[in-house]
């Protein structure tokens, strides 16, 4: 099984996770810029975070044989904090950097006027930069939030095939498919979508424009949920080619030409990474005596 997890916050995860991901067939990930739990108080926090996503984290992933990409954006939750607004001025310069494959995650949290404004501004940036947009749907009032999300995307002038609407479930998938956008599903350990429900949705709606992710982060989550969904698909009678389509070819098609998918040169599975440093830091902690 080869897997591209298109929504995985590796900054919050450990080297054990990287090893388990590689062993399960994950060869590439996309890490969307998001909220850190702890509110940010200035634009400098965002700059350091964005730099880490396209610098240190990409280096760290490569040490474990995994290609790492990022989406850059102001998340919906912090769109409401005036201290964070200034970041909108620095986002466009990140959108042209290598390995930045979309604007995101954007969208609604509580559906405030501030969120409306920040969402529309960033969709315009996606158009300018000729990048797709990764759009988060709110965990509360999901149906109304998804409907409004699709309206805003339409008004912004982005074609639906350039938009991935994420965190969908049985109640919102139909709307997104009717709109012609890509449908994203985050598979969680104990809330929202699980892999069995996911397989039922794939049976009902087919595999076209369907994308599955683990959305693993600093909360209770499981970075192997993409692999578990692939296994559940096989048990349910889907073919290996079907699994490859959902877990690899679909996200590759959506994110497109900016992905870097060649194997990491010099990486050998199961071996301690060769000594390497990124701006003076290494993933190694001393050498075996
Ligand atoms: Zn996320």
Automatic annotation (TrEMBL):
<protein>
    <submittedName>
        <fullName>Hydrolase TatD</fullName>
    </submittedName>
</protein>
<dbReference type="GO" id="GO:0016788">
    <property type="term" value="F:hydrolase activity, acting on ester bonds"/>
</dbReference>
<comment type="similarity">
    <text>Belongs to the metallo-dependent hydrolases superfamily.</text>
</comment>
<dbReference type="GO" id="GO:0046872">
    <property type="term" value="F:metal ion binding"/>
</dbReference>
<keyword id="KW-0378">Hydrolase</keyword>
<dbReference type="InterPro" id="IPR032466">
    <property type="entry name" value="Metal_Hydrolase"/>
</dbReference>
<dbReference type="Pfam" id="PF01026">
    <property type="entry name" value="TatD_DNase"/>
</dbReference>
<keyword id="KW-0479">Metal-binding</keyword>
<dbReference type="InterPro" id="IPR012022">
    <property type="entry name" value="UCP005295"/>
</dbReference>
<dbReference type="InterPro" id="IPR001130">
    <property type="entry name" value="TatD-like"/>
</dbReference>
């Amino acid at each position: 099984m080869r897997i591209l997890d298109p929504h995985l916050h590796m900054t919050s995860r450990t080297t054990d996770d990287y090893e388990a991901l590689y062993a399960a067939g994950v060869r590439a990930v996309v890490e969307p810029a998001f909220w850190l739990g702890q509110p940010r108080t200035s634009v400098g926090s965002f700059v350091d975070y964005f730099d880490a996503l396209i610098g240190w984290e990409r280096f760290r992933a490569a040490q474990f044989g995994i290609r790492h990409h990022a989406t850059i954006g102001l998340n919906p939750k912090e769109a409401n904090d005036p201290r964070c607004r200034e970041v909108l001025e620095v986002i466009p310069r990140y959108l042209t950097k290598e390995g930045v494959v979309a604007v995101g995650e954007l969208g609604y949290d509580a559906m405030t006027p501030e969120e409306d404004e920040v969402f529309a501004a960033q969709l315009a940036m996606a158009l300018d930069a000729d990048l797709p947009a990764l759009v988060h749907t709110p965990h509360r009032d999901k149906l109304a939030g998804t409907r409004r999300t699709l309206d805003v995307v339409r008004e912004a002038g982005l074609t639906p095939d350039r938009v991935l609407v994420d965190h969908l479930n049985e109640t919102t998938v139909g709307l997104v498919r009717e709109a012609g956008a890509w449908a994203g599903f985050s598979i969680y350990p104990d809330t929202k979508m699980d892999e069995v429900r996911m397989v039922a949705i794939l049976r009902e709606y087919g595999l076209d424009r369907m994308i599955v992710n683990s959305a693993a982060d600093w909360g209770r989550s499981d970075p192997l949920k993409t692999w578990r969904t692939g296994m559940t698909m096989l048990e349910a009678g889907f073919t290996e080619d079907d699994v490859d389509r959902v877990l690899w070819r679909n996200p590759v098609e959506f994110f497109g030409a900016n992905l870097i998918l060649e194997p990491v040169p010099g990486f050998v599975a199961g071996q301690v990474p060769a000594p390497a440093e990124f701006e003076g830091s290494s993933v190694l902690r001393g050498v075996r005596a």
